[in-house]
Amino acid sequence: MASLIHKDLSTLRWDGELPGTLNMIDQTLLPEQFLRIDCNTPEETWQAIKRLSVRGAPAIGVAAAYGLILGVQHNAHLSQNEFLEKLNITADYLAESRPTAVNLFWALDRMRQTAATHADLETPQLLERLLAEARAIEQEDQAMCIAMGEFGQTLLKEGQGVLTHCNAGALATSGSGTALSVFYAAARAGKKIHVYADETRPLLQGARLTSWELQNNDIEVTLICDSMAGWVMKEKRVQAVITGADRVAANGDAANKIGTYSVSLLAKAHGIPFYIVAPSSTFDFALATGDSIPIEQRDPTEISHGCGKQTAPAGVHIYNPAFDVTPAENITAIVTEKGIISPVTTENIAAMLKG
Ligand code: MRU
After folding, report:
1. For the CA of 209, the nearest atom of ligand 1
2. 313 cis-preceded (ω within 30 degrees of 0)
3. Hey, which residues are catalytic here?
4. Residues 17 and 138 in one domain
5. How do residues 170-181 score in pLDDT, each as one tens digit?
6. Taking residues 54-62, what's their average pLDDT?
7. Quick check: CB of 102 below 6 Å from ligand 1?
8. 168 close to ligand 1 (CB < 6 Angstrom)
9. What CATH number corresponds to the domain at position 280?
C-alpha cells in the first residue's frame, strides 16, 4: 500500500516559490474521499484550520507559518514598516483560529521573531527569509517526528498491544507523526505491535484518520469505540497507551483530545503505562500547570448531528469541549525529540528541554 509518509501524500506542502500556495489534504473528507485543497489567502488557511481540514498540533503550526506568508507575499512593494504591520495583523488573525494547540502560537511567534531579527533587510529579501523560516519549521517538525519515534519505540516490546486516542500521526504533522511515529519506528525495528485505536468522539479522528493512516502504512490496527478502552485493558489486550498532546505545561500536565484524561485514569487503574509523545514546540513554559490551558469549545452540532444525520433531540443542552488535560501524575513518561522524560516533573522537563 502507498505510504502516507510518501511525498505525494504529505499532509501539507508549500507549492511554488514566491508567490506560492499552501496545499493540504482535506482531512474532513477522509476516509471516504482523498482530496487535496489549495489555500491562497490567510482567510482560507484560517478556515481550513478551524474546520479541521488541517489539524493536529504540529500541522496547525506549520499551516499557520505558511498562512502568514500567504498574507504578505503580494506586499513586497510596501515600506518595511507597512510590511511588518501587515505581517503582525495577519499573525494576530491566524492566532484566533484555534486556542488550545500551542504550536500555532509558537510558529507564529517564531515568524514574528524572524521578521524582527532581520529588520535590516529590504522587504523582498525579508519575505524570502520568512519563507525560508516557514520551510525550516516544516523540516524541523519532520526531523522531530523521526527522533520521537526512535526514542519512543524503545518503550515497546515485541507483540504488545497499544491503545491510542485521536490521531497523532503523519496526518497531524508534516512528518511521520508523534504518537504514531513510535509505531512506524517499532515496525522498522522489526517489532510487531498491534494498535487499538479509540474512535474518538465526536469527530472520529481515531476511526476516520488513525485507522486509515495505519492501514495505509501496514500497521495492524483494531478500531474500538471510546467506551471500550477500559474493557480492552481489563482483557489484557493492551500493555501501553500512547497519545500525542496539544499543549504541555511546565509541570507536564498535558492537553490532548477530549477523552485522553479518561484513558489515563483507566490506564492507571489497570497498572498500564501511559505515554505522551510531543515535540518541544508543544511545550508551553509560560504555564506552570495545565489549569490555565485554554480549552476549545466547539459547535454543538458536532455532537447533535454526527454522521450526517440528527442524533440528538432538537434543543437539548450540549457541552462540547474539544480537549481535556491529563495531570502529570498520570503520565508515565513524555517522549520528546531530545529524549524520554520520566518521571514527569517540572525539573526533569526543564533539564531535558531547556538544558
Ligand atoms: O482537534 P484535533 O484533531 O486537532 O486534535 C488533535 C489532537 O488532539 C492530537 O492528539 C494532538 O494534536 C497531537 S498531534 C501530533
Report:
1. 3
2. no
3. 246
4. yes
5. 999 999 999 999
6. 98
7. no
8. yes
9. 3.40.50.10470
